[in-house]
Amino acid sequence: xxxxxxxxxxxxxxxxxxxxxxxxxxxxxxxxxxxxxxxxxxxxxxxxxxxxxxxxxxxxxxxxxxxxxxxxxxxxxxxxxxxxxxxxxxxxxxxxxxxxxxxxxxxxxxxxxxxxxxxxxxxxxxxxxxxxxxxxxxxxxxxxxxxxxxxxxxxxxxxxxxxxxxxxxxxxxxxxxxxxxxxxxxxxxxxxxxxxxxxxxxxxxxxxxxxxxxxxxxxxxxxxxxxxxxxxxxxxxxxxxxxxxxxxxxxxxxxxxxxxxxxxxxxxxxxxxxxxxxxxxxxxxxxxxxxxxxxxxxxxxxxxxxxxxxxxxxxxxxxxxxxxxxxxxxxxxxxxxxxxxxxxxxxxxxxxxxxxxxxxxxxxxxxxxxxxxxxxxxxxxxxxxxxxxxxxxxxx
Length: 396
Hints:
Strand content: 15-25%
Number of strands: 17
Number of domains: 2
Largest sheet: 9 strands, mixed
Radius of gyration: 21 Å
Oligomer: single chain
CATH superfamily of the largest domain: Dihydrodipicolinate Reductase, domain 2
Order of helices and strands: EHEHEHEHEHEHEHHEEEEEEEEEHHE
CATH topology of the largest domain: Dihydrodipicolinate Reductase, domain 2
CATH architecture of the largest domain: 2-Layer Sandwich
């Protein structure tokens, strides 16, 4: 498969000779720390030959007992409660930031200034201004920088991108996406950092919406205008130990979008959808057909071709994206033996290591800090539109 459509197997992407070792410093030991570490450990023997061998040097977290246990569990050589020690550690070449949103900018900027390559969880920053400062620091330092928009590395999503960019879908008319969960519906759910604007920046928008905004840009192109509504359904939450905390972020948002190529679409995210665990569904309608993707069925892509013959049997096809010629599959199992959500991180990190070792750009198939900045601009515009009840033109 060719690089032009992004169907590059990471096997064979290593530099000449033995794969080099890259020391990893991980900030954060919870959800994303676990997901990224799993990928670092799995990558060398599944993506073979690997572009580089990750060495788990050190992990940082705020709670000493918890981070000590994480280092033992995950296999890091050392641990610390001070992220600055990761940045200053000469054994570390790659700084992986899986911390809360308010801990993205300062550590990543310091890592760039120290000459470390950077992988940062999404959203890149709480605001576009903050994201711009991170992009500027990374570009000035000349380090490789990547935002962990792992859904770009789902084989079915990459197939959808190929079908769109090669013109198979024709002129794009519509993009619509929802990302729905239910996990904070209970009024007695306790106040957490994701509900505090000072820490999170936004609520469902940054947590879930940033993913579908990234996929909109990845598949269809740049948005030109947005018109949005946002809502906070439960405004007070109990605090452990007594009292309540004020929820200062959105619980849900809906946005109408006009793209630069003339397509129109909708984006919707909510954490108040009963029964929805991780429901991300997107649909792209073009002059020649339609594509539908459901994250909870991530090995499948629904495809409809408008002029398919014979018309009597025309309909949606369920494409099982698991053949050896599909993106990344030669690294895994025989066709029909499914991969899961965690494997997207293996693909993502292999792409990053290949960019580091072989001096390749992260974009356009991976999300770099420029993508993260543009995502933040769109998030800011959605909140501004909702606040002022008007259409906002996107300006980077």
